[in-house]
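Write out structure tokens for Protein trichome birefringence-like 38.
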Amino acid sequence: MGFGTQRSCSVLVTFFVIYTCLCLANSAKNTQNVKWRKQQRSCNLYEGNWVFDFSYPLYDSQSCPHIRKEFDCQKYGRPDDFYLKYRWQPKECDLPRFDGQDFLRRLHGKKIMFIGDSVSLNQWQSLMCLLHAAVPNSKTIEQSNESLSITTFQDYGVSVMLFNSHYLVDIEEEQEVGRVLKLDSLKNGDIWKDIDVLVFNTWLWWYRRGPSQPWDYIEDGNKVLKDMDRMVAFRKALTTWAKWVDRDVDPTKTKVIFQGISPSHYNGKDWGEPGVKNCSKETEPFSGSTYPSGLPQAAYVVNDVLATIQNPVHLLNITALSQLRKDAHPSSYNAFKGMDCTHWCVAGLPDTWNQLLYAALISN
Ligand SMILES: *[C@@H]1O[C@H](CO)[C@@H](O)[C@H](O)[C@H]1NC(C)=O
Ligand SMILES: *[C@@H]1O[C@H](CO)[C@@H](O)[C@H](O)[C@H]1NC(C)=O
Ligand SMILES: *[C@@H]1O[C@H](CO)[C@@H](O)[C@H](O)[C@H]1NC(C)=O
């Protein structure tokens, strides 16, 4: 056999191998999706463990335009990168891989809004990076003011919005009283109810005291108080929100998602290392799937309140899986050098939250 024949033969073989691989990959993808649809009815996506996966992260944070300086850990010198390489593996099925184009096509002509504190900002930012990585050349329009940021993907007619609200319920300035946190009042609901997908979150601010507490009094029913039990206040505000969901949201038009409590890592006792006072030395997740401290009390309040809602509400139950990620915070790798074991690096854990959000949106 001459060299030429051998070569064309190997070219043929190569083609055949590539072709077969492509077909197999395609059908594997289809079977995987079908399998996933079948499984997910019984599969709890929030129960599982973190596995090391070299194919992660889902995008390079350097190619994501304007990550906030609070979250851009690699840019601010974080030396390790293992925290980027963990994939959430549910116990009984696989999480569908995030498909940004599919996400945008499904939401064609629609609006999705994150409503809450800086944890919502954290997740919104991750979604921006995921979508930008999927459609880097898609034209976007960005608008923002202090209460609302909107990025519109023009080719898809999709708006991804962030509404800044620390407590969901209102804070109002009252003459001769001051700033009043009103546990029974949710005026912004009139804006939110016209959006197609709503992703709520509130928790971080409920225990704020001193100068960073953004209210002077708290109104509970017809009582105006200087302060009250914060967990009780949280429950009451959440109940106001729950009643609003049943009263004002049209479930045929709007999908409501509530994001579970995002945990922080300032207390090593929580993960079995008493004496540790922050996340600065953490480079690996907690191993195993049962976190020593158990769920935070606020997560039980969320469960209780969600159980009272008649309309469908999906709990994006990220609490337990995020508790395991003591390694995923910025710590001092942000523009302020301040110790932050509350928010999360982008790229990083919030990408998984968005994968779970995507799974929740495509499951019906
Ligand atoms: C959220 O997920 C955790 C871990 O799987 C579980 O223990 C908890 O019960 C879940 N909460 C709800 C309301 O399903
Ligand atoms: C922010 O922008 C939105 C939409 O453009 C607008 O409805 C709202 O009144 C603005 N809020 C402030 C505080 O300027
Ligand atoms: C973080 O914890 C380390 C050791 O646990 C300690 O040395 C350091 O002072 C802490 N940093 C801050 C800012 O709390």
